[in-house]
Amino acid sequence: MAKPIQKNCTHLTASHLIKEVTDCLVDIPDHRPNHCKNGIPFGNFAKSAFAMMQMKMPSMLRFDSQREDPVQAHNLETLFDVVNGRVPSDTRMREVLDQLSPHWFQKPYKKIFSRFQRSGHLQKFEFHIGHLKNHYLLAIDGTQTFFSGKLHCDDCCVKNQGKANEAYYHQLMGGCIVHPDQKVVIPLAPEAIVRQDGCTKNDCEKSALKRFLANVKKDHPYLKLIIVLDGLYADGPTIRLIKSYGWHYIIIAKDGNHGSLIEAVDELDKQGKVARCLKTDPVTGIKYWYRFTNDVPLNKSNPVEHVNVLDFVETDKKGDRHTWSWITDIPLTEKTIEALMKGGRCRWHIENQTFNTLKKQDYHLEHNYGHGEQHLATNLAYLTVLAFLVDQLQQLGSPEFQKALKERTRGVRIHLWELMKGYFQTWLIKTWEGLFDAIISRTVAGIVPYDSS
Ligand SMILES: [Zn+2]
């Protein structure tokens, strides 16, 4: 049996975090006729699917092939609270999960975030700029998770509708709490971009963003946020929506989309109303050039909406120039521009540390575990990001996870997943602490008996 959970523990360990998840998943109401009284407990469906993601199983079939294996059954019960280790077949698991509303798989995110707040580790993400203290950067973007010319479901977005080359795809709107000095990111509950969201890719992403932001406000009403977005969202309606929630924003501005804004800045520049600043890093010699001004009309069609504009050029040691522009409602002064630039560049954390990791570091976000007809693909994607959240928090605040990562795999997470999977499939494990102890102390299995006959 697992060790009793310490209520006020400040550590973000696997045993605590996974218990938060499984406690949520067991609340999903059983929709089966007569609740299949003698069948597999209903909670086992979602908990088994989550275990598959947490253990980085490459396919549902691979997971299913070990369904009768007593070692896996034992470990699913002790580590993931799968009652009696009874796992449904891959076909039955797909059928049941397909019918469940995705909101059940968003719920654990809020519970885990509450533990994260109580742990005190959220303070590491505090971002201070000018008069704004104790704010948090929330970087948001959409990413594609599935594409097919054949398979589709009720949630699928459609490309080339009605044409011979009609195709289907899924996208996810993801958002993470990020910080310039933190490698770890903290994903909030993602939001699927679905067919009903609009006709164009733009419409779809913006509709999903509205739902995403509404859910963030509902789940975290007191969190003081600065929303960090790509240039696609640099428009009046998105800015007004963000401000209606009492938040601030830093959004990329691009030449192609914001010609009149750039013209307005150039005009102010001629009038001597634009400030400039050049800084050189005394250690690296890298040069940073800033140009900034406040209170500029966002565009000609929307002269009411005024924004502050920061242009930034970095010249690296090779002499190559890298240019960025952002719009923001945060007042720009010589004291705030550096923090603003660092906050704006955190947008890459959603691309690099989040989506790339989810697609290339054994989380298999783009892998088709099964598509279903209603919500299966969406539900499995939410569970995949949930496993990523659990791992990110362990990396931030679990001493045993940190030690295993450092001492056994030199910080390479994908190698740690392989070690964990190996133990999970071959050893009877009673607790998460025991699993990490075995990994850290390099416990090895006995010698395989050799029979020459
Ligand atoms: Zn679909």
TrEMBL record:
- List the GO biological process terms: DNA transposition
Database matches in InterPro entries: Transposase_11
Name of this protein: Transposase IS4-like domain-containing protein
Q: Which GO terms describe its molecular function?
A: DNA binding; transposase activity
Name its species. Endozoicomonas montiporae
According to the entry, every stretch annotated as the Transposase IS4-like domain falls at 177-385
Q: Which domain of life is it from?
A: Bacteria
